[in-house]
Amino acid sequence: MQTLIEGVQPYVTTIATAAVGVLTTFVLAGLNTVKVKVNSWLEARTTAAQREVIHKIAGEGFAFAQTAFKQAGGERKLQEALQYASLTLTSQGITVSQVELRSAIEKAYLEYKAKTKTVLTTEAQPSEEVTQAAAKEAVSSLAAQVTAILSQATGADTVASVAPETQQDTAPAPYANVEGVAVE
């Protein structure tokens, strides 16, 4: 029984890693969708110059709350960021509803989380096509490993190889050394 667990453990680890990768892909796609919706909602209600100022001040409010109230909970930080942004925008003569202001601060928060999550997972954010290809590869690899595990568990003698084939370069090397003699 112990040897069966030891034999299955690498597969379980690989499956868990692939599942985390797929989950991360979905989370990043969801964050991108929310960001697009917030931008379109704000664009419909303000001018471009006002939006730029609102986003800048909302980002400042978020940064202020994040650093000045490190030990506070998320709701308190949000209230402090709202208060800062509201006072600053009012002093500049820009009137914004609390919903619009909260939306801009939430957007700044989501951008911050997306940047920190991306930095933690990879140094460069992959393109959407690369992410989708990686997700498809992870899913197919996961399916192949599950099939292999099931085949081993049922005691099947023949297991279809599902590992991707690697392409080899079959072109001859420009020089080969055979028993000390150089050949072209």
TrEMBL record:
InterPro entries named among the record's database cross-references: Phage_holin_LL-H
Residue spans crossing the bilayer: 12-31
Span list, region Disordered: 163-184
Pfam families referenced in this protein's UniProt entry, alphabetically: Phage_holin_6_1 (PF09682)
Keywords, alphabetical: Membrane, Transmembrane, Transmembrane helix
Protein name as annotated: Holin
